[in-house]
Amino acid sequence: MRNAWMFAAGLVGVIGLAQAHEEPIDTEWCEGGRVVLLGKFTLHGNQLQRYANYVEENGVCPGGDDGVSTKTCGQFDDEYGVGRSASSNLCSQFAYRVGRGDDGTVKPIFYEPASFRDGDPNHHELYSVKQGVVFACGLCEMPVERRETKQLERKK
């Protein structure tokens, strides 16, 4: 019972964090499914800067277009955008699609630094790529019966 309460409290915290800070995780993503953490990653400042330089010079995400639509690249408004884009790009490497919807999609869940995920309305200004970013990639898995229902709906 204690584990159930801890899980519920953590989930509420993640959902609240997502809504308040415009993080990639929102209450509608993976609704009806479960989020599986694929691993914890750290991108250091020099890696983020190289990523930003590559994208700005070439206009594409590293790795090219593999048909997965979860990647985001382009010009960055600020260094916060670099951290989000690099994290999303890395997590998208684990994505697969099973039809429409969220099943098989992957999104970053940010942990550090506090200036990146903090509730301060100025977090875009406070964050610097020199701080790096620590995050996990969360994979959305839908139950088999929900996948089958979606496939039947598509055939109609």
Briefly say what this structure is.
This protein has 156 residues and is of the alpha+beta class. It has helices at residues 2-21, 45-58, 79-92, 114-117, 123-126, 144-155; strands at 34-43, 106-112, 133-141.
Write the layout of secondary structure elements.
Elements lengths: L1 H20 L12 E10 L1 H14 L20 H14 L13 E7 L1 H4 L5 H4 L6 E9 L2 H12 L1
Antiparallel strand pairs: 1-3, 2-3
Keywords: Signal
Structure overview:
- This protein has 156 residues and is an alpha+beta fold.
- The chain has one domain (2-155).
- It contains six helices and three strands, in the order H-E-H-H-E-H-H-E-H.
- A three-stranded antiparallel beta sheet has the order 1-3-2.
- The longest helix is centred in the N-terminal third of the chain and has 20 residues, at 2-21.
- 24% of the residues are buried.
- Residues 1-20 form the signal peptide.
- Keywords: Signal.
Considering the chains and any ligands shown, give keywords for the structure:
156 residues, alpha+beta, 3-stranded antiparallel β-sheet, 6 helices, 3 strands, 44% helix, 17% strand, globular, signal
